[in-house]
Amino acid sequence: MNEIRLxxxxxxxxxxxxxxxxxxxxxxIVFERGKRYLIEAESGTGKSSLCSYxxxxxxxxxxxxxxxxxxxxxxxxxxxxxxxxxxxxxxxQELRLFGELTSWENIEIKNRLTNARTRAQIESWFxxxxxxxxxxxxxxxxxxxxxxxxALIRALCQPFDFLFLDEPISHLDDRNGDIMRDIILRExxxxxxxxxxxSIGKHPHIDYDKHFKL
Amino acid sequence: xxxxWKLLRKHISITELAIFFVANLIGMVVILxxxxxxxxxxxxxxGEKRLIGNDYMILTHPVExxxxxxxxxxxxxxEELGNQPFVKNIGTFQSSQYEVMGSxxxxxxxxxxxxxxxxxxxxxxxxxxxxxxxxxxxxxxxxIIPRNYLNLYNFGFSQTQSLPQITEDMIKRVELGIELRGxxxxxxxxxxxxxxxxxxxxxxxxMTFMEWANNHYAAENNTDATRLxxxxxxxxxxxxxxxxxxxxYVAEDKPSESGKALxxxxxxxxxxxxxxxxxxILSIIIFMLSIYLLLQKNIxxxxxxxxxGYSLGSVTAPYNIITIALNVAIYVVxxxxxxxIQSIYTRYLSDIAGYELSASPLTSALSGLCIILAxxxxxxxxxxxxxxxxxxxx
Lengths: 214, 394
Fold this sequence. Notes:
The complex is a heterodimer of chains A (214) and B (394).
Chain A: E1 3-11, E2 28-32, E3 36-40, H1 47-54, E4 61-67, E5 70-71, H2 77-86, E6 88-91, H3 103-114, H4 119-128, H5 144-156, E7 162-166, H6 174-191, E8 194-199, E9 210-213
Parallel strand pairs in A: 3-8, 3-9, 6-7, 7-8
Antiparallel strand pairs in A: 1-2, 1-4, 4-5
Chain B: H1 2-8, H2 14-46, E1 56-60, H3 75-82, E2 87-92, E3 94-95, E4 99-106, E5 109-115, E6 118-119, E7 140-146, H4 147-161, H5 168-173, E8 175-182, E9 185-197, H6 207-217, E10 227-232, H7 238-247, E11 250-251, H8 257-297, H9 299-307, H10 312-353, H11 362-393
Parallel strand pairs in B: 7-9
Antiparallel strand pairs in B: 1-10, 1-11, 2-10, 3-6, 4-5, 4-8, 8-9
């Protein structure tokens, strides 16, 4: 997948609002493969909605969202499944990890599906992110910051053209934030993927190609 | 798959599944036994070896007024009737054209009475006896009387007159004196009762004897038939009734017992199957509610799995496997139960029928397979729809 296009998109609930000031809503925007984007938002401006639209979870918007010229409202469940396995990867704000599984199992449940990474590769990330000792801990016994790092590793366990990072370092200190940024940049560069970061405050220090205010 | 199982088996209620299993099992056993019983009993009522052999009708013209000119069946009438599609066999009653005097020695005194004989072709006779034959020159005549006569005596006459009851075997040993008169001749014969008929309400002698005796003793040979016997597939068939009333014939026999029995059987089976269906439907509702609740409790996990790239098919697989495994188990156990039930009632029915019934659970196995497949497909469809629904909604 090479581009994501938003044509005059606006959430249904904002549609009638007149004083809507946004770089995204009601604009025509293109996200291209290989580039880096930051979408900064304040509370209540519809960040969660935008993410839900792009993940195919919700469709309560006007306008059009196109993946390589295909209207995503017309994608079947099977097509979404293929996209989520091969083209778009997401680090969810709410993480969406499985609390009753260990961090290793949480990674495995994804990597089994895609066979994208080796165990050694995954273990080296755990090492790099400073959570190697947590590899067999249950997720619900770990801190949110530790969980965020596990969620990143899971997001990397698949081929992708677009990597969505929804508030990726909200619970990390600067040092760990920088480690995470390095891994993200490395992996995105390797596959030529786009990085789209959303944030309401803290965001990784990256040299962004484009900066949007939601 | 192992991890999916680990995630999604949570909240599975063994109790609810057990209730479904037992309830649906009961439903299936009841339905399948009903169907099996129907398919086993139906041939006894309608087939070659029917249990109630009353698919015969005796036809006459109505008696319209007091007099001696009884209406006969003409040859064309007989031929036309024989050509009707519902008539399997047709035969005429031959009656004796000579005088018959029967006598019996009882307590040392001789009792005698005027009587008559009739004959029908052997295929219509429901008594099997080696003695049922006559050849020219024989002095012994085999006779069949209606079982009613004996019952009338045993349960009516003998009771009021303080006379002893008599068994069929005793009667068969009694020698009757039969005197035939006509055409200027008078001869003595010995009569033996060789059997009792439930079908034919007359005093029967073999056709061979009747033809010979009519030639020998009758002044003029009048073979016009006043009564016909026909064998029909189903006397309750409206086509039969319609034809008879159109021709103005009177059926001496009441509508067939087997028609009534078949109807009764159908009613019973419908009731049984209906009860079974209620069980099964309720159990399926319990199962669906249980699965719905399970899906609802696991809704977040299902959603997350699909958001990280799991297909609808792979997240529904655990529930599909549970559904298929449970239903296949129900099918197998219910077929085993039906085979056991069948072996029990087959023993009873064989006793009643007087011959060995073959017991094959093929009918219930096939209908059970259809039902179980339908239940499985329905459940899989519902599960898929529900998961699709919750994945889209959020």
